[in-house]
Amino acid sequence: GVLHEDLRLLLDTALPPKRKKVVLGVGDAKMGAAVLEELGVQCQTGGVVAELMRGIRLHFPALVRGLTAQSAAKAQLGLGHSYSRAKVKFNVHRVDNMIIQSISLLDQLDKDINTFSMRVRSWYGYHFPELIKIVPENSMYCRVAKFIGNRRELSEESLEGLEEIVMDSAKAQAILEASRSSMGMDISPLDLINIESFSRRVISLSEYRKGLQEYLRSKMSQVAPSLSALIGEVVGARLISHAGSLTNLAKYPASTVQILGAEKALFRALKTRGNTPKYGLIFHSTFIGRAAAKNKGRISRYLANKCTIASRIDCFSEVPTSVFGDKLREQVEERLAFYETGEPPRKNLEVMKEAVVEANEVVAEVKRRQEKKEKKKKKREKRRLEALAAAAEEAAENSVMEENDLGAKKKKKKKKQKEPEESEAEPEPEENGVEEEEEEEEPLPKKKRKVMVEPEQQEEEEEKKKKKKKKKK
């Protein structure tokens, strides 16, 4: 019923000062009522307005300058996406979808475990029929059947293992005695292997069911603590699942919550003009079971009323607590005692005042803890950022040092390369001991120098040979 701030601002700026004479055409009657309540502007809704709105929507790109049909379609698509996202977007700790799925899976697991346990009983009963009466529980029967296997191999040594499974020495002794005088047929090893593997599957399913129940309990304490404190986790989860969500359950009146789950009986009673049902899913609560037969209808009506209050508190409170659920549970207990003994219960006003005081203290404590957690988180984030900055600085310094080292190494290598080149460029002394004059020329490589030196040596040798010939003559 409260107008959005953007819509209110738009209407304030768009409408003329004399608003009472203006009649605004609105496609939705609820929006028209909200505009009339907030701004005092008369709104008209009906078939003509809907047709006008449809025409405006169709020709909107032509009416607005610079708006194309493609951009209008994109805007409509974006609006649809944002609306859907807003509908889907919830607080992670307040999501009731997980509760709906887990309670459905829990009910399905109960059915499957019962079916499979009956299959194990009928299968293993051919070999050891007396075990069914001694161990009536399904999961325990599967454990015992898996442990025993062939009953002929059961002896005094395996008595301790049986006691650990059955948690009763008398039962373990009874199983041992029954195995010695059993009327069952013999069984082959292959059949035993199949029975043991199937029993192992049933045991794993029952263990998973326990874990799923713990998960459901933790989720209900986060999402609907008051409802779970009042009526229990399983029954509260069934109510939420049947309603569709916690918000839908909060919108229901107490009379609907009372017969939620008994729709078939209700419509049959309305059709045949018989008595309508007194309770639906809340029949599984302990309160109705403890009440006398004549008070079951009265206590179910009272309990449905308290369940509605608890679901509304859970749905619309910012910090959900179980204080109100505990107080409402106390009220139901007092009403139950009043029906049995006649002791007058406390007034609702007094109980709710106490609950509000306690809830404020709990909320303050929770907020204080949240602030501490946020401060610690900010400190951790700050330290992490400082560590990252320090690491980045160290990495930068290391990279600069490495670059300097590389530059120095390159310079040393260049110097080392220049030194051998200079030593190679020095002139070598001649064989006859005459040193050549130093010429200021660039040093030549070895190959070129050899090429230049060889013709001079040949000429000298030829001159020496000629001198020797002259001397001989």
- Major β-sheet annotation: 2 strands, parallel
Q: How many independent structural domains?
A: 3
Report the end-to-end length measured between terminal Cα atoms: 143 Å
Roughly what fraction of the amino acids lie in strands?
Answer: under 5%
Helix content: over 70%
Order of helices and strands: HEHEHHHHHHHHHHHHHHHHHHH
- DSSP strand count: 2
Global geometry: flat
CATH fold name of the largest domain, please? Answer: Serum Albumin, Chain A, Domain 1
By CATH, the architecture of the largest domain is named Orthogonal Bundle
Number of discrete helical segments: 21
Query: Could you name the CATH class of the largest domain?
Result: Mainly Alpha
Determine the structural class based on helices, strands and strand pairing: mainly alpha
For this structure, what is the CATH homologous superfamily of the largest domain?
Answer: Nop domain
Oligomer: single chain
Strand order of the largest sheet: 1-2
Contiguous low-pLDDT stretches (5 residues minimum) are 427-453
- The radius of gyration is 47 Å
User: What do the pLDDT scores average to?
Assistant: 82
InterPro entries: Nop56/Nop58, Nop_C, Nop_dom, Nop_dom_sf, NOSIC
GO biological process, one term: ribosome biogenesis
Domain Nop: 223-341
Family: Belongs to the NOP5/NOP56 family.
